[in-house]
Amino acid sequence: MSATQPLFLPSDGQPRCLWCAAAAGDAGYLRYHDEEWGFPVDDDRRLFEKLCLEGFQSGLSWRTILNKREAFRAAFANFEIERMARFDGADIGRLLQDAGIVRHRGKIEAVINNAQRCIELVAEQGSLAAYIWSFEPAALDQPLMATESEASRALSKDLKRRGWKFVGPTTMYAYMQSMGLFNDHALGCVTRSRADLARQRFKPPKVSVRA
């Protein structure tokens, strides 16, 4: 890790990760950085939602997806896994007409497929959270501001083996960053210490293999 990293200084004078500069003046974007990004999550619905949104982000900016997040939630049954797994051709047609989301057939079909695969995974592992956190990298293996890592490649490979789609290693790296599997806030970022404290207090769920 470098002792110093480029930072963004918004109007409140508190240094943030440089990527916040992409939405200077956007309070919602800063709030996402300050309150969500890099903080550990163990809720299956939230984990699945973010995995879906990371897939939709492919080729787009996160700001675009974040601004559409409420529309995505409305369109995809609040990312409730069991309900999404029952989506059919009529739902796909409805979603392709929804201007509030990203109307990409491949991505829409992928997240429906992933909901079905997620039900299978939960039946085997006990929860999505337990499965995801089993890929948490060791402290010495945590890169800083990379695009992929050994852990993200392992997660991507295993999800693909299970039939998941739009889960490449770069996408999974961004996912692991955002869900707090490691703290990738820049050194000097005002949020980094709070994310560290949250992780210290967090107890990762364990895989509970079902017979």
Compute the number of helices.
Answer: 11
Reported CATH architecture: Orthogonal Bundle
Count of domain modules: 1
- Main sheet properties: 2 strands, antiparallel
Distance between the termini: 43 Å
CATH class: Mainly Alpha
Q: Tell me the overall shape.
A: globular
Annotated CATH topology? Endonuclease III, domain 1
Write up what this structure looks like.
With 211 residues, this protein is mostly helical. It has one domain (10-201): Hypothetical protein, domain 2 (Endonuclease III, domain 1, Orthogonal Bundle), CATH 1.10.340.30. The chain is 51% helix and 2% strand. The protein contains 11 helices and 2 strands; from the N terminus they run ββααααααααααα. The chain has helices spanning 27-35, 44-57, 62-67, 69-75, 81-85, 89-96, 105-125, 128-133, 150-161, 169-178, 192-201; strands at residues 7-8, 16-17. A two-stranded antiparallel ribbon has the order 1-2. Strand 1 and strand 2 form a beta hairpin. The radius of gyration is 17 Å and the shape is globular. The model has no long low-confidence stretch (mean pLDDT 92).
